[in-house]
Amino acid sequence: MNFKKLNIPEVILCEPKVIGDERGYFFETFREDKFTAFLGKKINFCQDNESKSSYGVLRGLHYQSPPFAQAKLVRVIEGSVLDVVVDLRMGSPTFGQHVAVELNSELKNQLFIPKGFAHGFVVLSKEAIFAYKADNYYNYKSEKGILFNDPELAIDWKLNGNNLKLSEKDAQLPLFRNAEYFETKNQ
Ligand SMILES: Cc1cn([C@H]2C[C@H](O)[C@@H](COP(=O)(O)OP(=O)(O)O[C@H]3O[C@@H](C)C(=O)[C@@H](O)[C@H]3O)O2)c(=O)[nH]c1=O
Q: Is the residue at 29 inside a domain?
């Protein structure tokens, strides 16, 4: 696995070494030792999730508030998505900024999203199966979100707005300016 810091340096792109042979392919999807060595701290993942979505489905932007904040390691098992994270850490030099990266099942790339970020993705392929690890359990009372097309965030979701499909909940999320920000020291 190769690890790369992105424009927001705490957000890490993980690029696995895929070994192909006449049977197909093999790759390590997660190695705690290498991951911990790169981050310099251990993330205790405790929940694995999977969702399937069709073209144009946008899930996000989501986060859980403390004490249920979640760091996530996300990837695409089938298809392609544009994955977006927004920095909600007060005092961070990149507060309010976002990173957008295409994750797909060809590259098998993954994104590590620390606590203190809102996360969402839009499906660019006919369908996509999305999988992720989280280091804190789902807690519906702590679920929070930000409206995907808040002009203040100016996220280019790559797809025409007419093609986007959102849940009722996600279409009614508040703006970034009304989000619950994170204390940087807690991250
Ligand atoms: C996230 C989650 C949802 N659920 C339930 C609640 C609901 O009935 C159903 C679907 O939930 P949602 O509509 O919130 O699912 P979804 O929109 O896929 O939510 C996910 O979006 C991405 C972008 C994230 O970053 C995740 O952390 C998570 O918030 O699944 C769980 O039981 N456990 C979970 O961990």
A: no
Distance CA 141, CA 111 (A): 25
pLDDT in tens, 10-68: 999 999 999 999 999 999 999 999 999 999 999 999 999 999 999 999 999 999 999 99
144 is in an annotated binding site: no
Query: Which value does ipTM take for this structure?
Result: 0.98
The whole-model pTM stands at 0.97
Domain count, the chain: 1
177 among annotated binding-site residues: no
Domain assignment present for residue 30? The answer is no
- CATH code at position 128: 2.60.120.10
The range of the structural domain enclosing residue 91 comes to 44-186
Active-site positions read 62, 132
Q: What is the pLDDT of residues 135-185, one digit of tens each?
A: 999 999 999 999 999 999 999 999 987 889 999 999 999 999 999 999 975
Pocket of ligand 1 (CB under 6 A): 49, 51, 59-60, 62, 119-121, 138, 167
Phi, psi (5° rounding) for residue 177? -65, -20
Strand-by-strand arrangement of the 47-54 sheet: 2-5, 12-15, 110-113, 72-78, 127-134, 47-54
